[in-house]
Amino acid sequence: MNAISPDVTFDLAATPLRELNEALHKASAEANARRWRVLNPNGRHAVAVGIAAPLTVEIEGNVGYYCAGMNAEASVIIHGNAGQGVAENMMSGFVHVRGDASQSAGATGHGGLLVIDGNASARCGISMKGIDIIVKGSIGHMSAFMGQAGALVVMGDAGDALGDSLYEAKLFVRGTVKSLGADCIEKELRDEHKALLAQKLEAAGIAPGSVDLSEFKRYGSARRLYNFHVDNASAY
Q1: Residue 197: what are its φ and ψ, rounded to 5°?
Q2: Which long-range contacts (CB under 8 A, 24 or more apart) does 62-70 make?
Q3: Residue 158's closest CA among 147, 143, 145, 136?
Q4: Does residue 145 contact residue 181 with C-beta atoms inside 8 Å?
Q5: Nearest Cα to Cα of residue 34 among 63, 73, 69
Q6: 62-68 contacts: CB < 8 A, separation 24 or more?
Q7: Residue 221 forms beta bridges with which residues?
Q8: Contact at 8 Å (CB) between 59 and 41?
Q9: What is the 3-state secondary structure (H, E, C) of the chain?
Q10: H/E/C letters for each residue in 161-230?
Q11: Which pTM does this prediction carry?
Q12: Residue 231: what pLDDT?
């Protein structure tokens, strides 16, 4: 926990989850208590969803599906693992998973920053639309499928079909990629890309110079699938 005491503490062993989310939404509307602590989440689903103000919410334990979904402006720190769809459809703000994340982390996210200290399972960043996702471990198959915008940075390995049907999302992987999806190709890592990568890593709390940026590879769209053309039929 941060040394600063929270304004509000909710113990989900004693208080229904619905009351927590209602209180967070009320705080968003009324701009009162800014620091929140959530105890005993015990894998509950939809914890701290739909926050629309610059609150700080620290969750002490593992969460289930869709934690911090639709987040806007808030900082949500999960001191544990997260189930499917953490930070789904995130609009802005910051979500930090101190452990591992299950499938579809950051799915359809429009903005903000999602940091995962451990590994992320399949479909990390699926249909991402502007979110930045930093995974300090490895990711599973079909990650960044139909990724439209934003950046996915992976410090470990990537599973099968990375970037399948990719649009303009930027992918950086430090480790091994098992296979690339349709229309995803490796691209040159130039100085401007290293500068962008350094910026993303620093935003995730990784000290400048602590990682050799040349160890990363950059992946992007070959742009053959934007519009159907019979010569590219085999790529579908």
Answers
A1: -60, -45
A2: 62/99, 68/95
A3: 143
A4: yes
A5: 73
A6: 62/99, 68/95
A7: 184
A8: yes
A9: CCCCCCCEEEECCCCCHHHHHHHHHHHHHHCCCCEEEEECCCCCCCCCCCCCCCCEEEEECCECCCCCCCCCCCEEEECCCECCCCCCCCCCCEEEECCCECCCCCCCCCCCEEEECCCECCCCCCCCEEEEEEECCCECCCCCCCCCEEEEEECCCECCCECCCCCCCEEEECCCECCECCCEEEECCCHHHHHHHHHHHHHCCCCCCCCCHHHCEEEEECCCCCCCCHHHHHHC
A10: CECCCCCCCEEEECCCECCECCCEEEECCCHHHHHHHHHHHHHCCCCCCCCCHHHCEEEEECCCCCCCCH
A11: 0.93
A12: 62
Tokens of 203: 């935003």
What is the token pair recorded at 133? 């996702």
Instruction: Give per-residue pLDDT as tens, 182-204.
Output: 999 999 999 999 999 999 999 99
Residue among 163, 219, 158, 164 nearest 187 (CA): 219
Residue with tokens 């990719």: 166
* Amino acid found at 214: S
Tokens of 199: 């910026």
